[in-house]
Design brief:
This protein has 136 residues and is of the alpha+beta class. It binds tetrahydrodeoxyuridine (THU). Tetrahydrodeoxyuridine binds next to strand 1, helix 2 and strand 3.
Amino acid sequence: MDYKKLVEAAINARKMSYTPYSNFKVGAALLTKSGKTFTGCNIESAAYTPTNCAERTALFKAVSEGEREFLAIAVVGAPAEGESNFCYPCGVCRQMLKEFVSDDFILVIAKSAEEYKVHKFGEILPYSFGPEDLMI
Ligand code: THU
């Protein structure tokens, strides 16, 4: 899997983020098992709570186009100006990803195309609640 290429797609997606309130810009790129990449950025709202994170934007775009099987996501997030840092998915995005991914789904958390950390989903949402818990 080409992590660098996925990170570059996330970096590009971040350019579209709409963040008049936080000025914190995030881009995500989600790779499907079929080999397609869906990107997303965060989109904020004057009412604050309707804000959508970059990860969910990418996920919703993919699912709404018929994709339900995913291999990996790259995430790049930092304030518009200033130093970049590793930005991990928020709790809501972790829970939403849980709907579609298994513990071996890969997260590439990047500061740049050269500097990134790789995790498995099971590490960032252990002891989770998911669809299988409702299959009774
Ligand atoms: N945000 C994301 O898009 N993804 C994350 O992983 C963390 C937070 C967004 C939401 C909001 O627009 C801004 O970053 C500050 O929380």
